[in-house]
Amino acid sequence: MQSVIEIHPWPKPVRAEISVPGSKSITNRALVLAALRPGQTTLRHALWSEDTQVMADCLGRLGFDVHIEQDPSESGNRHITVQGLNGRVPNAGTAAAPLELFVGNAGTAARFLAAMVCLGRGVYRLSGIERMHQRPQGALFKSLRQLGYRLETANDRLPALIFGEGPKQGRCVVSIEESSQFASALLLSSTVGQWHIQIEDENAEESPYVSMTSDLIRMVPREGGAFAIEPDASSASYIWAADWLLRGSGSRISVAGWMKKSLQIDARFPEVIESFPNSISRHDQLGDSIMTAIVLAPFAKEPKEFTDLGRLRVQECERLYAIKTELGKCGARVEEHGDTLTVYPSALHGATIQTYNDHRMAMCFGTLALKVPGIKIENPACVKKTFPNFFKKLAAQPPHGLGARITDAHTGKELSLEDLNAD
Question: Which of 77, 23, 80, 37 minimizes the C-alpha distance to 57?
C-alpha cells in the first residue's frame, strides 16, 4: 500500500449499507477459550487482521491445530477452527532455549498469552514491537507471581520470560487501573488454572470489557461446536460517523448486519452521536470509538467535552497528544485539561495526517476526509491491525462502499481496490 494517500469525497449523495469485519476483542478471547476447552470449535465470521493473526500464529507455535477458511460474506473475516486440548498447552521451551512468541503490538495477545502459557510446562519468551515493550504489563505480572509463577523481566514490561508450571490452585488480586486486559487474561485461563481472581480498581470505564470476558466464558461452547463472532462495533463507528457527517447532503449510510444486542460498549456509538451530548465519558458511554466522536466534534453546534481519557495515553500511541495535534493541523480548536479534551466548532481544512502507526488515527481521519477535502493519510497500512480492508470500503462503489476516490498523494494516481488492501 502507498505510504501516503489522499481521499477525495464522492461528490453525490451516497446510499450504502456496508459490512464490517468481526470484533477483535471477541475473536481473540474466543481463540483462547477454544484452545483451552475440549473438542473442536469453529469461530464463524472471526476477524482476520494483524492482531488476530498474531494470536492464531502463537497458538500454532504452542502446538494447537488452527485451521483457517475464507468467509465468503466478508473479506476481512475468516472461519477459524481450533482443536481444543482440554487445558493442555503442548509445546514449551527450556531456560536455555525458550519458546518464542512474538505478539507485535497486540495488547490482547500479549496479556492473554502471558497468563495462558503459565498453564504449560516449560519456558516461554514473549516479545513484540518497540511500542508493545513500552505498554504496561506490571499489574498482570504481579498477579501471576501471586499465583506462584515465575516471570523474569527487566522492567515489568515485555520482553519477558515466563516459566509455565501447569495449573496450580491459588488466589490473586489484579488491578485494572491501567488496562482491563489484565483481568480478562486471568479470567480466560482461570478455570483450567484453578485460580480465584479478585479484581480491584474496577470502574465503569473498564467493567464492560471484563463483563465481555465473563459473558464469553459462558457463551463459547464448552465441548466444541460453532460460535459466531459479532461485527466489530469500534470499526463500525467509522461507518456510522460517515452517515452523521454526510447526512446533510442527502446521504444515508448504515452497517450491514447490525446487531440488536451486543457484548461491546462501542455498539452504543450510533445512539450517542445521534444525541451528541455536550459531555461524553470513556468511563461509561463509549470505548475506543470515543476517538471517532472526537473527530466529529468540530462539526457540532456547541463545544463538546470528552472526559476520562487517561487510558488513551498508553495504547497504540499517546492518543490524546496524537488526536489533539492532528485535529489542530486541520484547523480545529482543541483544549486539553488533564485527561479531558474540549473540542470547539471549527472550520476545517485539509492537512497531512501523521498516524503514529495507530490504526484508529488512520481510520478516524480517513473518515473525516469524506467531508473535508485535502486530507492526506501517512502510513495508511497501519489499519491492518484491526480493519485491513477499511480503505477499500471507502473506495468501493455504493451500495457496498462509499465511492470515495483515493489517490497516491505523491503522484496523484488513482488507486484500485486491490491497491488499498492493507493485508
Answer: 80
